[in-house]
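Two folds, back to back.
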Amino acid sequence: MKNVWISFCCVTFFAVAFIAFLRGKPVGAQERGPASASGLNSSVPLSREMEFALERKKSNLEVKEREISLQQKKLQEESDDLNKKITALEGMLKEKEAFEKERARLSGEEFQKIVKTYEKMPAKKAADVIAAMDDKIAMDILRQLKDKSMAAILAAMPADRAMTLTSALAGRVPASTGK
């Protein structure tokens, strides 16, 4: 708004100086008269057209100032809305993290229940089920079993499946069986 006011003052000054130049009189050569319609105390009387043009410029500047003020208010409102949404999203993110921690805790507890179930099963039945599982899941279960239970289950499994799982648990590739 300050820039708008400065522009208005500059335009007005140059208009008055230009008129004085055209009349061949320096600015301030005449006595100052009453304020003109443009709101300026000018040493040079302005023509009706110049006064009207200056008033129109002043009016346009006031309109622009109001538009800028409205845009600034709108931007501030949008900024406030965005800050509220960011705060809400951060809250949701914290809730999600807490939920995931609880889910991991529960799934860990549930996994331990499954491991205990296999320890309580007869070795042959547990071996049949674990042998049919995906390697990763089977290894996760076997790692959690007590040594005695794991030994009994591996002994009850078909030899090639027991060898694959044992090698995977040891982190090694099974040796060729020569077949």
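---
second:
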Amino acid sequence: MPGGHERPRDALHGAGPRPSGGNGDGEPRVREDGGPRGRLDLHGRRGEEISLENKNLLIGRYRGAIGVKTGFTESAGKCLVALAERGGKRVLLVLLNAPDRWRKAEEILDAAFARGSGAFSARP
């Protein structure tokens, strides 16, 4: 299926949910009541409110974690794209088919920050 989606209903398109702005500017609102990981309020195509909770377990737990995206498909397994920043250095991590993605992410991010600079790859 084009776009990396396994089923047509998985595909995102412009007619899907869109962020709602608290001041009408169209920017997403992040609610603070979701704890350190937060929530994002969206409005659906028919104006319905949709609240999404961040499921990225690194946020609020791993020092320097900024976020990015978690995912799962039967083909790719548990996946994670993570971004962390420490001391002005950013590390971007991509894990595919990683059954223990949270522990592995912490391990690889720690190794990347300890290394200081330069890219490297590791198998999950």
